[in-house]
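Before a computer can learn anything about folding, someone has to put a protein's shape into writing. The three-dimensional part falls to structure tokens, numbers that each stand for a local backbone shape. The protein below has been through that process, and both of its lines are reproduced in full.
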Amino acid sequence: MKNESQIKELVREKYSEIASQSKQQNLSSCCGATSSCNDDVYHIMADDYSKLEGYVADADLGLGCGLPTEFAQIKEGDVVIDLGSGAGNDAFIARRIAGENGKVIGIDFTEAMIERARTNAEKLGYNNVEFRFGDIEKIPVTATVADVIVSNCVLNLVPNKQKVFSEIFRVLKPGGHFSISDIVLHGEMPSRWKEVAELYAGCVSGAIQKHEYLALIEAAGFKNLKLQKEKPILVPDEILKQYLDEKEIAAYKNGNVSIESITVFAEKPTCEPGGCCC
């Protein structure tokens, strides 16, 4: 397995390639960075955004694993931050809800994605949507700025998830909240999958156990944690065959291992008199 810096660079390279293509091109080559439709690991988790108000087709690369903006309880005038904003898909949906008096800040560490998102915002004339280059392990936003934070199938790409949740806590206002869609595991993943660093970019081997994921949220200081949606992810045989032999595939299918998309909500506590929740 590669180290954290190598994994980050791999993710950056893969998503830079994907950023240069349309959703249709990405789906036709399945992961956008390969020539074989057997590499559909990038898209097996995606939900359909096309019927949501505020949807922008040019911003939809088919890379998510949920619809966090549907559950995020965004209000008119809110400041919303989208972590791992890609081409702007969730940010533009959030902007429709937050309205002209709201503000949306998208954060992404892939320069090609930032450039594409900014181009989309300029075409639409959205002056209250901003895209910043940065690592979500060190969010380039001052403390207690956001009313709401959303993220869609991104934290599983980050090696240090504990640091991200700490940063989310720092950036949220007291009483603010997040709604995050992500990939989690039940049971022990086949060891060979964990050794294939490329699967980090496909959201599989970067995922951790569900109970560990939820524990990180609570350890960061969040309250009122709720699972808003849970969806099983079925990995097609053509993908399994790339990384496992027949015996390992049979063991995976017959074992107690499963991959799940969850959308989770939690709140930053309000400050008590004389206390601090920063």
